């Protein structure tokens, strides 16, 4: 077993471990290009009970670049959990007999933690409900460090759906380990839960809340914006009320500093004008590639 046992929550990692993961990711840059055989005897099972493009495919790409093999499913409906009502616990106790590590995405908060409790092999949380997406937060930190040369000393806006967006919950907590100024920018209905803000402040974060795009984009090093998570709203009419309320357009670029970068975990819908894609501010497709690098690091640290 490697240096990490599981990766379930960003809350389980201190700054020393986060920096170690980011340093290991930097070492993976050349391995990603040249390929390696360090995990050639290992099998990764990807259990995706919710849709994904980036997380699943970047985990698979990461494992293949390290010489390992991949099994799994990309939607609940083709598994016995979706088709026949098998419990998550029984699914995990079955898959652990086929693989060396489980990567799971599931619509329920707490699903990754429960999986780890039943599993004899390591488990990685690839997104659990609206609660957490720890490997996304780590790749976001890695992207910020790679693009800005540091994390300490930066001002960062987290924008959009801060209520249901699991990426911002994990990233907010991860950033709290660093000396950063955090702007939480969202309409009232999509504010981050006060309990999470309290946890961030308790960990030492310098946090302010704003409500408009104009306030969000001014005078920051990094703008991290997110999709309004339609699928998490209990009532779709509530989604319709807010869906157009936080959109960054090319006109907003005039309010930004020249060196401000824009990140987005993707997928995007309407919240980020495609006209921004060809400007120097747009870094979200470079961020996508960092997902492979960071996930190679996590697999190496757990299985290597
Ligand atoms: N960022 C992210 O989690 O993307 P996918 O839903 O495509 O995996």
Bound molecules: phosphoric acid mono(formamide)ester
The outline comes out as globular
State the end-to-end CA separation. 7 Å
Tell me the CATH superfamily of the largest domain: Aspartate/ornithine carbamoyltransferase
Strand percentage lies at: 5-15%
Number of strands: 9
Largest sheet: 5 strands, parallel
* Count of helical stretches: 11
Helix-strand string: HEHEHHEHEHEHEHEHEHEH
Rounded to the nearest angstrom, the radius of gyration is 19 Å
State the helicity in percent bands. 25-40%
Mean pLDDT: 96
CATH-defined fold name of the largest domain: Rossmann fold
**Count of discrete structural domains:** 2
Task: Tell me briefly what this model is.
This protein folds into 2 domains: 10-132 and 291-303, Rossmann fold; 134-288, Aspartate/ornithine carbamoyltransferase (Rossmann fold). Helix 10 links the parallel strand 8 (222-225) and strand 9.
What does this structure look like?
The chain is an alpha/beta fold and 304 residues long. It is built from eleven helices and nine strands. The protein has helices at 15-34, 54-65, 80-84, 88-95, 111-118, 134-148, 166-175, 194-202, 213-217, 236-242, 284-303, and strands at 43-48, 69-73, 101-106, 123-128, 155-159, 181-185, 206-210, 222-225, 261-263. Helix 6 crosses helix 7 and helix 7 packs parallel to helix 8 (194-202). The protein is globular. The relative contact order is 0.17. Bound molecules: phosphoric acid mono(formamide)ester. Residues 52-55, 127, 136, 265-267 line the site of phosphoric acid mono(formamide)ester (CP).
């Amino acid at each position: 077993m490697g240096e990490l046992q599981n990766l379930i929550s960003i809350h389980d990692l201190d700054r020393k471990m986060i920096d170690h993961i980011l340093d290991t990711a930097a070492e993976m840059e050349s391995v990603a290009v040249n390929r390696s055989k360090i995990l050639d005897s290992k099998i990764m099972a990807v259990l995706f009970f919710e849709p994904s493009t980036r997380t699943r495919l970047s985990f698979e790409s990461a494992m293949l670049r390290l010489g390992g093999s991949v099994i799994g499913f990309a939607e609940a409906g083709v598994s016995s959990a979706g088709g026949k009502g098998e419990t998550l616990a029984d699914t995990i106790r079955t898959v652990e007999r086929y693989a060396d590590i489980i990567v799971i995405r599931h619509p329920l908060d707490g699903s990754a933690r429960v999986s780890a409790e039943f599993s004899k092999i390591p488990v990685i949380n690839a997104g659990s409900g609206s609660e957490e997406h720890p490997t996304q937060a780590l790749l976001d930190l890695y992207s910020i460090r790679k693009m800005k040369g540091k994390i300490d000393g930066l001002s960062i806006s987290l924008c959009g759906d801060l209520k249901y967006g699991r990426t911002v919950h994990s990233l907010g907590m991860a950033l709290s380990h660093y000396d950063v100024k955090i702007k939480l920018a969202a309409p009232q209905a999509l504010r981050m839960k006060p309990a999470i803000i309290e946890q961030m402040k308790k960990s030492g974060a310098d946090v302010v809340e704003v409500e408009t795009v104009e306030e969000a984009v001014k005078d920051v090093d990094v703008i991290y914006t997110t999709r309004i998570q339609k699928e998490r709203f209990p009532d779709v009419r509530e989604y319709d009320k807010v869906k157009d309320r936080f959109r960054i357009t090319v006109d907003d670029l005039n309010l930004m500093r020249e060196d401000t970068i824009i990140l987005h975990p993707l997928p995007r819908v309407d919240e980020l004008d495609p006209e921004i894609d060809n400007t120097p501010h747009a870094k979200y497709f470079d961020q996508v590639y960092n997902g492979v690098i960071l996930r190679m690091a996590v697999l190496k640290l757990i299985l290597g």
